[in-house]
Amino acid sequence: MVSNPPGTAPPPVDRLDLPALDAKWQRIWEERQLYRTDMGGRRPFYCLMMFPYPSAERLHIGNAYAFTGADVYGRYRRQRGDDVFEPLGFDAFGIHSENYALRVGEHPATLTARNVKHFRGQLRGLGLGVDWSHEIDTTDPAYYRWTQWVFLQLFKAGLAEHREGPVNWCPSCLTVLADEQVVGGACERCGSVVGTRHLKQWFLRTTRYAQEMLDALGTLDWSERTKLAQRNWIGRSEGALIDFRLRGCDRDTVTVFTTRPDTLYGATFLVIGADHPQLAGLTAPGRRAALEEWRRGLVGDLSEPDFSVGIDLGTRAVHPLTGAELPVWAAPYVLGGYGTGAIMAVPGHDERDWSFARSHGLPVVEVIAGGDVDAAAWTGEGPMVSSGPLDGVPSEDGRRRVISMLEATGTGRAHVQYRLRDWIISRQRYWGPPIPIIHCPSHGPVGVPEDQLPVRLPQVEDFRPLGTGVSPLAQVEEWVNVPCPLCGEPSRRETDVSDNFLDSGWYFMRYPSTGFSDRALDRELTWRWLPVDMYIGGHEHAVLHLMYARFLMRALHQLGHVPEPEPFRRFRAHGLLSFGGRGKMSKSKGNVVSPDEYMARHGADALRLYLMFLGPYLEGGEWNDHGLRGQSRFLERVWRCVQLCASDDVAGEARERRRHRAIARVQRSIEELHYNTAISALHELQRGIDDDLGSGAGGRRIDALTLVQLLAPFAPHIAEELWERLGQRGSVHRAPWPEHLPELAAEARVTIAVQVNGRLRATFECDAGTPGEELERLALAQPRVAELLDGAPPRKVVAVPDRVVNLVV
RNA sequence: GCGCGGAUGGCGGAACCGGUAGACGCGCGGGACUUAGGAUCCCGUGGGGCAACCCGUCCGAGUUCGACUCUCGGUCCGCGCACCA
Question: For A217-346, where are the alpha helices, taking DSSP H only?
């Protein structure tokens, strides 16, 4: 295992057994509570990683990658002297687990408990610097009691509403889905085509904070692409609401939203969304049967909009400015759920309306000059035409002018519309926390008194979803029937459970306070630890989870429960590991790689190091295990060379510079989350020490100690073992980070490139900081250069100190 | 279609502010040690050429003494959004 130069005595180094070190130090760390955070510490640093969803699929290499990267950062900050809080838990409620339980015919409670246990074991095996004393399990009544409490605070504040609305219904999961869980008209979980149902649901009023959340994005240190995804999702647009009086149907008016009120004179018909809930009232009585038949014939596929499909409702709408009568149509290209669910169609200046008008022979009128509306819709700006008193007004100004005219007659007003919608949290399923509401015949929905929390999820053997729009909990009569907390009248519990994004929307607030069973959020700890300083997780949660967490934090801040409105000061999305060119790792793609066997064979340290070495942490990459051995070899060299460093000589300036440079590079790379380059710097330092040993000069203890400390965030077990073997007291993970001086981190001698006309012709060495004139002199003295110049002086000389001399002839 | 990333040896990747392209690792070639080596160590490793040199960071222009880096145009790949009026 260990080679010796011929003729020397065997070194006093025993064989390295990395897996054994994992076990040894994980045990000792636990005994000594090494990662237990001092919650009253003076330099709190909350380093959060997205908690896992412990499915039966086990932890895969992609999870190991994500958690290790977050842990490296947390460990680094700890070594820098911060009181780092690195908690972890399990997001174990939810449809995904429940569906799996249904498939294998086991109760989700027992299944989840087993999965959590397995996950915890795998995570511990990775050697994360996690304070497990603050662990959260969202399915534990001790946690979901407070999830219910959060809901009640929102309910009391008017931020949770029970109302009927069109909702996304997954026919396979047999439940309502949030808009965010519908991707291209299909269920995000199972891929079934999502339909629409009208049900009474619990909505959290995320839209109330749409503008605030949009504005606050500017203050957050998040990557631009994440902020952009949030901006798009909030989808602010400015425009106007315009009322049209109706003739020939039950309703007298319909209101439309438009971002182009300047084109109002060009409106030639109205279109109502085919899924609009009050479509019948907008239809001429004689057309209703035809409408119903037409609606039944529509295909549920929403992926490709068809601008030719539509039906004339027989109703007439009165143009608020001209008094003209316009036909009213229904079409699926208009969304019944966005804005008012109705639009004024301006075919001259909207491509969709243009296509629709062409398909149905409806008139196209030009009201903004600049295009040719017979050939295509003109969506740009220009002077207004055929617009009554506004002819000649630039369209940009026309927007305001039209709104003023409408306001004068009370038929319209300026309006800001957001794409963001309220968050439906009702799930007609079993595996979630019951929504803590009792429906009283007299009082309506009444919150369960807080002292009666948690509302425990009853143990139900048959937890299959019913598909009737009601949760299986509705069948548990003895649980459902309760007296009203206000008047004692016989009442029924809410039987829906909440979306598991509610569980995960506030878990980071709870971590510091897990020790308290009498309050959700301890005031002192919450004020000390929130908001989160660094949050690391997958970019797939850029809109879903992050938006919900921001909403909940903002709401709870307004209610005085947390110190600031924004939950995450800094957020970074780690890259994803792909495998075999088959995209992101997932069980459905059959490309899951387990970290277990790698850890068992090579140890967690080698795996951690290799994962972090694959490429920039924020970019991810393709997984293969070809290079893993390279990192094991590196650790073996570290193991040997560190233990052979016995010299207390600290003079040697070159070695000291090398040491300072290594510190500077590792530090900088970690701060940028460029772990791969930090590891390169470690390799180079190790090679340097090896060279010292090989040259017979002896290795310096100080170099060995520094190497071990710099290695510690990446390979915590071997670093700890070597730290001990070097005779240090305490843990390397608690030892102060080595200091470095910038002036020492630079080289003393530099190599200057000599170019002639921009081409490299020679190099020479000189002291760092040698001035330009001197460099020029030295460059001209190079034999090869003199030869090329052949006595002629260069036309121009560019000398960049420490870098290059370029001679132009 | 719109927006945001990206493209560098056989492979993963490095390169601060425009200053010796290819750090570090894998793989590969050679050597040492060895009964053996798929262990370990040492040397080499972008392509071409005996050499001087030439070519080379997706392609094409440009700016510059000098461009992986900046500007313009294009190709390909990835991700997000995509009837939101």
Answer: 224-234, 288-297
Model confidence pLDDT, tens digit, residues A619-645: 888 888 888 999 999 999 999 999 999
- Does nucleic acid strand B have an atom less than 7 angstroms from the CB of A235? yes
Give the contacts of A124 (CB within 8 A, at least 6 positions apart): A26, A132
Longest dimension (CA), chain A: 109
| In a shared domain, residues A436 and A412 | no
pLDDT digits (tens, 9 = 90+) for A725-744: 999 999 999 999 999 998 88
> 3-class SS at A680?
helix
Q: Which residue is nearest to nucleotide B66 (CA to C1')?
A: A758
Length, in residues, of chain A: 809
Cβ atoms A204, A154 nearer than 8 A: yes
Confirm whether any atom of chain B, the nucleic acid strand, is less than 7 Å from CB of A631: yes
Same domain, A193 and A259: no
How many CA atoms lie less than 13 Å away from A21 in the CB half-sphere? 25
Residues of A 693-712 whose CB lies less than 7 Å from any atom of strand B: 694
Q: Are residues A673 and A771 in the same domain?
A: no
Structural domain including A345 reads 236-418
SS3 A371: coil
Those residues with Cβ within 8 angstroms of residue A371's Cβ, 6 or more apart along the chain or in another chain:
A377, A378, A380, A382
pTM metric for this prediction: 0.91
CB A705 within 8 A of CB A726: yes
ipTM: 0.94
The answer to whether A557 CB sits below 7 Å from nucleic acid chain B is: no
Angle between helices A675-694 and A604-613 in degrees, nearest 10 = 120
